[in-house]
Amino acid sequence: MIRPPEYVSAIKPYVPGKPLEELERELGIKGSIKLASNENPLGPSPLALEAIRGAGKDLNRYPDGGGFYLKNMLSEKLSVSPDNIILGNGSNELLDIVARTYMRPGDEAVMATPSFVVYSMAVQSTGCRAVQVPLKDFVHDLAAMREAVTGKTRIVFIANPNNPTGTINRIGEFDRLMEGLPDGVLTVMDEAYYEYVSDPEYADSMKWFREGRDILVLRTFSKIFGLAGLRIGYGIAKEEIVSEMNKLRPPFNTNSLAQVAAMVAFGDGAHVRRSREINEEGKRYLYQHFGRLGVRYVTTEANFIYLPVEDSGTLYERLLREGVIVRPMGPKALRVTVGLPEENTRFIEALGEIVKS
User: Fold this and answer.
1) Which residues, including other chains, have CB under 8 Å from residue 357's CB and lie 6 or more apart?
2) Beta carbons within 8 Å of 284's beta carbon, 6+ residues apart
3) Sheet strands side by side (includes 186-190)
4) Is 116 domain-assigned?
5) Within its chain, how far is the Cα of 343 from the centroid?
6) Could you tell me if 281 and 218 lie in one domain?
7) Based on the domain organization, do 36 and 88 belong to the same domain?
8) What range does the domain containing 121 cover?
9) How many helices (H) and strands (E) does the chain have?
10) Which terminus of the chain faces fewer neighbouring Cβ atoms within 10 Å, N or C?
């Protein structure tokens, strides 16, 4: 029987959050809520939904393979050239493409742990080594990550805000990292939750792009824009990097509906503002009740909260039986998405009953 390389066999497949329908079928319950996958609980912009309906008549045609109109809209809004933008089937796809573009078997990539598991998967799939540096106080330890860079390092992955902890790296520490990285190392700055951040000291990745450094800034329409089901994201980098990545980008990798919806969603400022407001209100509510219940939590700049707990598996299963889906993050932590007010209340009520018992 044909077998893949050992480094592929060793990859643990990504396990998505449990769908509502599956939970209800397994446990025989109704009316469950999902706070597991960091989705926007408001859903997509109503304007984007209207645009999707209008675009349906052309689904017999292939999508625009280069994403001309979406890239030009992003170009204007972000003050970059269209040649600095690459579109992906979610920013996830771009993580895979950048690893395959720049890593050769035997190379290394530096990343934090815990952080987004797809970084290590993308690196391992190329026959390379993921060098994982522990977080410090739930935040990327950028000084330690710089120390982990060697002559074999090709990429440094940073999630800012970090998934699963929701913490950020700030301007000074990020600038020191960039100043200290040697030539020939690409920084991949994953800013999937960028639009939720309110801290004025949030690291400025675009400054380093504009200075011509080897940096790829990734953003997505899956989170605050509410288009996770359409799978579309984008990267910003200097033209030479985008050009090389485009050689491995599959043809027609972003579909027509996603492109149209992304253009409209990006321009719907009212929906984005309301999404931020709902998230901030939800964070305050959850912080207050975590404090009341004596539950540890990490303050977040994203739309989810990291809960260090003693036995995440048991707590996860007990919440499931109450019809509440959260995300276990190893044996000692849970991650909960900030939901609508009624969802947050339902979660706290279920958590309170478990804590009491």
Assistant:
1) none
2) none
3) 85-88, 233-236, 215-220, 186-190, 153-159, 108-113, 129-134
4) yes
5) 22
6) no
7) no
8) 46-267
9) 14, 12
10) N
Q: Note if the pTM is more than 0.90.
A: yes
**Cα(280)–Cα(198) distance, integer angstroms:** 10
> How far is the C-alpha of 351 from the C-alpha of 307, rounded, in Å?
12
Q: Are 328 and 313 in contact (CB under 8 A)?
A: yes
How far are the Cα atoms of 162, 225, 289, 314 from residue 195, in angstroms, in the given order? 13, 9, 25, 33
Q: Which two tokens stand for residue 325?
A: 């889906």
Residue 18 has pLDDT above 70, yes or no: no
The SS3 of residue 190 is: strand
What does the pLDDT read at residue 263?
Answer: 98
Owner of token pair 């975590």: 290
Helices (H), 247-333: 256-267, 269-293, 312-321
Tell me the C-alpha distance between 244 and 249, whole Å. 9
CATH at 250? 3.40.640.10
Residue 67 corresponds to which tokens in the numbers above? 């994403």
Q: Stretch 224-241: mean pLDDT, rounded?
A: 98
CB contact at 8 A, 313 and 20: no
Which is it for the CA torsion 289, 294, 299, 303, positive or negative?
Answer: negative
Average pLDDT over residues 78-100: 98
- What tens digit of pLDDT does each residue of 287-302 get? 999 999 999 999 999 9
